[in-house]
Amino acid sequence: MKEHPIIFSSDMILAILKDRKTQTRRVIKPQPCNWVENIEFDKNRNICILHGHEMGMKSATHGFDGQPVILCPYQVGMKLWVREVWSDAGSSTSKFEKDKRLIYYKANPCIKFPFSKGWKSPIFMPRWASRITLEITDVRVERVQEISLWDAKQEGLNFEWQTGWTGCIPLKESLFYGYHMLTEWKNLWNSIHKKQYRWEDSPWVWIINFKRIKK
Known about the structure:
By secondary structure, the chain is of the alpha+beta class. The protein has two domains: 4-80 and 132-212, no CATH class; 86-125, no CATH class. 13% of the residues lie in helices and 29% in strands. It is built from three helices and eleven strands; from the N terminus they run βαβββββββββααβ. The chain has helices at residues 10-17, 149-154, 178-192; strands at residues 4-7, 23-27, 36-42, 47-52, 61-64, 67-71, 79-83, 86-88, 103-105, 133-143, 204-212. It has a five-stranded mixed sheet, with no helix packed on it. Strand 5 and strand 6 form a beta hairpin. It is globular and about 55 Å long.
């Protein structure tokens, strides 16, 4: 199965390396139309079947009994190589040497400033410079506001668990943990999606569970 790149922020890179983050949400693009009330994810065929009062959707494929569907770009077992903010110092004298170049990663706590070449965007990170590979273990679909306490934990949010909580309920319905965690998650989401697909819009998202492949 072909590998695919995926970008994470420096904070999320650290959470992955500490095995605190095992889940990520990615916006479905393009978004289903407003008439869609429910999305049924068929894992066997790796498609999303759209349900609603109206029919017809420009962003979907019609092919299963006339129902509009969306093909899922992620599959269980698929490998994802991680892109992050990095720097190439141009040296070849380090144990981190790859392709005769010294690679620095901004997420590393000891790296506080860019080197002479400056930090490079994750978009420009080649496969050989990536240090993290993930394997998808599960995929599902929901709206971003439907995140539960347990999912927030898997997303890498760092908070202490206490007794008496119910992890499966949505954050917005939790009386004990909901307000704090909902605010933290909402701020994190909006810091990434500043213009489109904001928390307030509650976009449909792919929920991807993964495990880190340790070499």
